[in-house]
Amino acid sequence: MQKTINFVGIDMAKNDFYACLKDTVEPRKFNNDTTGIKSFFKHLLKNDFQKGNTILGVESTASYHLKLCIDTMERDYKIKVINPLIIKKQNQTDLRRVKNDKKDSRLIRFCLIGGAGYLFNNDPEAIILKSLIRQRDSLVFSKLKFTRQQADIRLKEKCLKQSISPVYVEIINVLEEKINLLKTELRLYRPKEQYLLESISGIGPITAASFISEVENINRFKRPEQLVAYAGIDPRVHQSGTSINGKGYISKRGNKILRTRLFNAASVAVLHDNMFKIFFQKKKGEGKPYRVALVATMRKMTHVIHAVWTRGTPFVK
């Protein structure tokens, strides 16, 4: 006899979350803390939602869902993390398009039943990598902002022929020091995979670390096309009846960070002698505009990343 699987949709916020166990039952609210999560699991057991017959689904948030996911795995339950865009798209199919926490938990459960999401993998190194990458990106952005402001001050100093203030210079130096410190710290986590990905032309330390932190486990993607879609560089196709309109645009529905890293990596790779430059020039020779040829190169690079990472052997140039 086939076992019945229970699905639980969870809409997570900073301080609390709603859990939908069944469509016929009103979603219930719990505090997003140790006490609230314990109460939630007691509620599951009370309704006979055992660890062997239950799958939880939660929308991916900044970090709000992390504690619940970790506690769920410690209790041997399965929990899937769902892309917010999938839930948003599902909500758009509703004629009423009402948005609140209770309805969102129902939507998440519906998406979960449909197979959406990936199983959360409690990999501390990937979580730390993601945090370090985010910190570095924030500092790089700040450094760029202060550098521009310092350039403006230098222009004023030149016009006035006198010094104004060295504060921005000091801030920029401190930021540079911290950025280098984070870059060194990144090397401490999953270094073998980082060096593996860096064997690919155009992939540097930051891009490699970003892929590991965002993808976490390459086995989530059985085919390279799935990784392409996850990065949001798959073609966007509009179909109506028998008419199919494909303008060469990308979907941009996936991970923005990976898409940015791939754009930078491909832009560098096509400047040097390697397979990506040959592929890029081939596309240009076919009459493709620069951007279209570069996006095609990004897809090619993603296929190579998937192959190298899956096989566990360095890229042979």
Furnish the topology, listing elements before pairings.
Elements (H helix, E strand, L loop, with lengths): L5 E7 L3 E5 L7 E4 L2 H13 L7 E6 L6 H9 L3 E5 L1 H9 L8 H13 L4 E2 L4 H37 L6 H20 L4 H8 L6 H11 L8 H7 L4 E6 L2 E8 L5 H14 L5 H11 L4 H22 L6
Keywords:
single chain, alpha/beta, Nucleotidyltransferase, domain 5, 3 domains, six-stranded mixed sheet, two-stranded antiparallel sheet
Q: How does this model look, in words?
A:
It is built from twelve helices and eight strands. With 317 residues, the chain is α/β, with parallel strands linked by helices. It folds into three domains: 6-119, YqgF/RNase H-like domain (Nucleotidyltransferase, domain 5, 2-Layer Sandwich); 124-189; 208-311, no CATH class. Strands 3-2-1-4-5-6 form a six-stranded mixed β-sheet. The chain has a two-stranded antiparallel ribbon with strand order 7-8. Helix 3 (84-92) crosses helix 4 (101-113) and helix 11 (275-285) packs antiparallel against helix 12. The longest helix is centred in the middle third of the chain and has 37 residues, at 124-160. The termini are far apart. Residues 238-246 have low confidence and may be disordered.
